[in-house]
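Cross-check.
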Amino acid sequence: MGNIVLLDDLTINQIAAGEVIERPASVVKELVENSIDAGATNITVEIKNGGISYIRVTDNGKGILPDDMEIAFERHATSKIRQAEDLKDVKSMGFRGEALASIASIAKVELISKHETSDIGYKIVVEGGNVLEKEEWASVKGTTISIENLFYNTPVRYKFLKKDFTEAGYIEDVIMRIALVNPNIAIKLISSGKTVIQTRRKWRFKNSSL
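Predicted model, tokenized:
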């Protein structure tokens, strides 16, 4: 028997997490960019303990179709490209498709979403890469995704995180950078119950010279 083996999906996703998810700020960046790609005009980010124990991102974007909620957590699943030729025309914030799979492999994830064409929303819970539950859920249009206990099953990664206030500072920096280049989106960051960043949406008029 040879020495080369195929890794299982959980191991693959955790390796990908090491490439994509360096710290809580990486998670926030990925999720907020997904909200922007979904057409959100209002995004709220809530964190506790610098995002290590809790992150929640809520948006008013177009939402996720019920049939897409489970596959969204599969590796390389994306709505942004269909074939290699599409790569040159990507206009979204990203298309990698491994972010949710990577996050769900190293944390507990709860996703609640109602698509703009749906009558009711759905909730799905994923932990360690496994879908634990999926059910109908009363909600408004948009998506709320909650992340708990980041790196709970990868202690080596966890020990390299810095103190809570330092990790919170990294998240503030990410939010400020995103807010500066997206003045048409209202973005709020709440850290341990305190609003630390809040931007207002600046309306843009097609025929305005301002």
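Helices lie at 9-20, 24-37, 99-105, 155-158, 164-180. The two ends are 70 Å apart (CA to CA). Passed to J.P. for a second look.
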